[in-house]
Every structure is written in structure tokens, then in C-alpha cells.
């Protein structure tokens, strides 16, 4: 009788433990974390309010971001010392394609056993920033510092924190990869350097002959100085310390020319940084996880790159 009672008691404890574990996992999974207690260089503007585009109850894109956040996505089977990727959606520094280049990508990473964080970063604006050139970079640096500081909480290896950026989000990701040590706010001593970088049809350069003009104007203004153009042309900022990088582009991309990825790859190669570049014949621009032609295979190639570099458990 006593054994039977112990059995039922132990079973009840096990069910309770499982329930608590699932509840904690769900709470963490649904977390949306504000990046800042006090946003550096902030200008208050009451008429500048976030604008979300919603379809079927799901946020597709957002603009006029004032409160940058991290949305947490953890694998169903969370393992100790897993890798993590912070995702920067694109949108020409005008809006964020938060679903196609954020949420869906995070879910794909989760299917590989990688923790993911969608970064809703501030878009450059003189209305809400004292210096709009560095506003997105401030958010990007702080996002990496936050995840690294809280790595144990999310079962993340602090030496396996990567970033992924699409289009203008790729510019921000490549800026972070090459400007992670820039002092753009009063930061903690935690490193903002990503351990690896995944750049998907990225804007890399601000040089007039190959840049995406909309991204250039949004970030640097209508008449940027040559110094500013050079500083944010990230192919010119690569060093031996730039993180290993995986790049994807399509030959027929007429929005963001593939020369952006090619020139960044050549700079990485020159500095002996591990790099892999995939230029697909067709795909155009903005194909997200891949919707047509040869671009639909980039996720397979990316998965193999992650496995080769030890980021898949």
C-alpha cells in the first residue's frame, strides 16, 4: 500500500515538474524583451507612433519603431549550449519585414535546434534620434550584448551567437560584424562581436555605383559626406577579426546588386576570414526562405555551413 502511495506521489510530482517545465518554456518562448531601460540619443516625438501591417491577425511588417525589442524563439527540445541567431529583417531602413524575414526564419532555426531572436530595431529617423546614422547599430550591439549576458538563461553557448540579416537588415548585420567595437553608446564590457554572420541578399556598400539608394538615403541622408559613405561601406571595414560569414545572393537581383555580396566576400577572403558565397542564377530580391528558382535551396546550403562550423548539435 505504501509503495502504491509512493508511486502515485512520485507520478504527481513528475507531472507537476513537466507542467512547470512546459509553462516556463512557453513563457520564455513568447517573451518580447525591450532592449533598453533608457534609449541612447533618444528624442521624444509624440506624433511618431509604431505602425503595424496586419494580415489574418499576424504582423507582416512594421515601421516607425520607437521601442526596439527582442522576440524570443526557442527550440521545442532546448539543449544545453545550443547556438543562437539574432535576426535583422530587411525593408530598406523604412520598415521591417517582420514575418517573412523574421518570425518564419526564427521558426526555421528552431527546427534545426537553434535558438532565435527577432530584433525589432529602430529605423533611422531625425525625429527620434540625435544621430540617425548610428541608431540601428546601437540596437544591434545591445541585442548581442543582451543575449550573451543572458546566455545561461536560454541554454545558449555564449561563443556560438550569430546574426542574420536580409537586404537592409543585411547592411545592419554587416555593420555590426565590422563595427562591433565602435563606441556608439555607453555600453557594458560584454562583447558585441557576433561569432558568425549570415547575410541574405544584403546591402553591404553605401558607394553610389552599387548601393541600394533607398537604404543609403534612409540611413545617411540625401547628401552624405565621403567619410560617412566610406564608414558605412562595410566591404571597406573588413579585418581579420570580422566573424566567419555565409552569403547568399541572386544574379538577377536588380534591387540590391550581387556586387554587394561579391565585394564583401572578396574583402573577407583578402583578410583570411572563413567565408562562403552562394550566387544563384535566379531568385530576384526578397525571396525570404526561398520561394522559387534556385534561391529556394539556400536554406539547405546554410544548414550544411552551420553543421560544418559546429553550430548544430
From TrEMBL:
PANTHER family: AB HYDROLASE SUPERFAMILY PROTEIN C4A8.06C, PEPTIDASE S9 PROLYL OLIGOPEPTIDASE CATALYTIC DOMAIN-CONTAINING PROTEIN. This is Endo-1,4-beta-xylanase B. Keywords: Carbohydrate metabolism, Glycosidase, Hydrolase, Polysaccharide degradation, Xylan degradation. One of its GO terms (molecular function) is hydrolase activity, acting on glycosyl bonds. Residues 70-267 form the BD-FAE-like domain. SUPFAM superfamilies: alpha/beta-Hydrolases (SSF53474). GO terms for biological process: xylan catabolic process. InterPro entries: AB_hydrolase_fold (IPR029058), BD-FAE-like_dom (IPR049492), GDXG_lipolytic_enzyme (IPR050300). Coiled coil: none annotated.
Amino acid at each position: 500500500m505504501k509503495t502504491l502511495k509512493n508511486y502515485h506521489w512520485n507520478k504527481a510530482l513528475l507531472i507537476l515538474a513537466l507542467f512547470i517545465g512546459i509553462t516556463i518554456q512557453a513563457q520564455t518562448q513568447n517573451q518580447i524583451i525591450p532592449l533598453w531601460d533608457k534609449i541612447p540619443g533618444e528624442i521624444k516625438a509624440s506624433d511618431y507612433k509604431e505602425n503595424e501591417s496586419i494580415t489574418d491577425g499576424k504582423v507582416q511588417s512594421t515601421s516607425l519603431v520607437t521601442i526596439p525589442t527582442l522576440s524570443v524563439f526557442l527550440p521545442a527540445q532546448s539543449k544545453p549550449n545550443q547556438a543562437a541567431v539574432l535576426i535583422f529583417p530587411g525593408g530598406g531602413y523604412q520598415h521591417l519585414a517582420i514575418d517573412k524575414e523574421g518570425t518564419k526564419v526564427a521558426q526555421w532555426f528552431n527546427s534545426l535546434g537553434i535558438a532565435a531572436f527577432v530584433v525589432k530595431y529602430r529605423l533611422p529617423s531625425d525625429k527620434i534620434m540625435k544621430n540617425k546614422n548610428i541608431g540601428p547599430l546601437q540596437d544591434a550591439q545591445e541585442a548581442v550584448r543582451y543575449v550573451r549576458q543572458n546566455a545561461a538563461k536560454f541554454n545558449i553557448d555564449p561563443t556560438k551567437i550569430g546574426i542574420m540579416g536580409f537586404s537592409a537588415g543585411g547592411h545592419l548585420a554587416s555593420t555590426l560584424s565590422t563595427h562591433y567595437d565602435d563606441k556608439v553608446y555607453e555600453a557594458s564590457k560584454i562583447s558585441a562581436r557576433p561569432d558568425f554572420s549570415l547575410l541574405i541578399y544584403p546591402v553591404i556598400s553605401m558607394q553610389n555605383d552599387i548601393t541600394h539608394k533607398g537604404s543609403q538615403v534612409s540611413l545617411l541622408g540625401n547628401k552624405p559626406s565621403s567619410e560617412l559613405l566610406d564608414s558605412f561601406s562595410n566591404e571597406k571595414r573588413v579585418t581579420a577579426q570580422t566573424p566567419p560569414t555565409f552569403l547568399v545572393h541572386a544574379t538577377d537581383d536588380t534591387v540590391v546588386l550581387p556586387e554587394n555580396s561579391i565585394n564583401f566576400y572578396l574583402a573577407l577572403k583578402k583578410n583570411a576570414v572563413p567565408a562562403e558565397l552562394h550566387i544563384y542564377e535566379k531568385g530576384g530580391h526578397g525571396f525570404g526562405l526561398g520561394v522559387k528558382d534556385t534561391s529556394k535551396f539556400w536554406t539547405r546550403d546554410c544548414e550544411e555551413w552551420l553543421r560544418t562550423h559546429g553550430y548544430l548539435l
